[in-house]
Design goal:
- The protein is an alpha/beta fold and 341 residues long.
- It has a single domain, classed as TIM Barrel (Alpha-Beta Barrel).
- It is built from 14 helices and 8 strands.
- Strand 7 (255-258), helix 11 (264-273) and strand 8 form a beta-alpha-beta unit.
Amino acid sequence: MLIIDCHGHYTTAPAAHQRYREAQLAHFKDATLPPPERAHIGDDEIRETIEQNQLRLQRERGADITIFSPRASAMGHHQGDEAVSLAWTIACNDLIKRVVDLYPNNFVGVCQLPQSPGVPIANAVRELERCVLELGFVGCNLNPDPSGGHWTSPPLTDRYWYPIYEKMVELDVPAMIHVSASCNPNFHATGAHYINADTTAFMQFIQGDLFRDFPTLRFIIPHGGGAVPYHWGRYRGLADMLKRPPLEEHVMKNVFFDTCVYHQPGIDLLFKVIDLDNILFGSEMVGAVRGIDPRTGHYFDDTKRYIDALALSPEDKRRIFELNARRVYPRLDALLKQRGL
């Protein structure tokens, strides 16, 4: 059995990468400043940041492969303009490709998209194509709120989003729905904005008929599905009130949750409420919550430990740790089969 972590970010990227971002945004605000140059990052710098962090934890906690994407909170789609977002996105995705090339047995790439408030999502299609067809990535992260906490974009069921959905279906890749940083002081990024977005996306899917138009479209809602599993009865009831089909027919053939829930009772609830075929193992490490739980003595984001504690059969554990990810990410499955796995 392989242990596939569907939710990892390069949160430990070399400092030069962030300095490039800071110079890029400074130049956008003041054109008299010199245009920024892409960071010159050596392979040894990447090795140091990965081997001391994600790779070390991967080995210590017993995972095999991480589906790896740029740091979500740093996507910063609300900063700069479309050109700034595109340049930053390309730099971030190229850096992920370098990690994957250095550690092909441990990491598989997923891209961020060059989104900007008010800009057609169709403009992001080319970067998705580049990352999947040229860089070998297996999916993307889709930000439902490029405004950074002000929610100026249409709902995910609106035809505004259809160009990227059409390309996702053509390429047979899923998207993880993942917002970036919040510039709205009402919403702490990881404690409120992320969970709000997860929950909001699910409700939008209930209200619309997106999967009638795209029956093979697939989304991963991270962070355990936000508030959805805890309020499953509410959403079942709302679907009924809105004259929608049952959730299992209307949404759950296309939507999956990860296990980035940082305590045992939360994982217990997730598995009690949500069908096993809709749950993918994920840890988000090294991510939003990095400390040690004083009640257990273990890291909050060591989510494999919580799943190991469940009363699951070996077959069901394999579904969670491996088979569901291979089904949702068919390009990952094809890659693993090429390797005889």
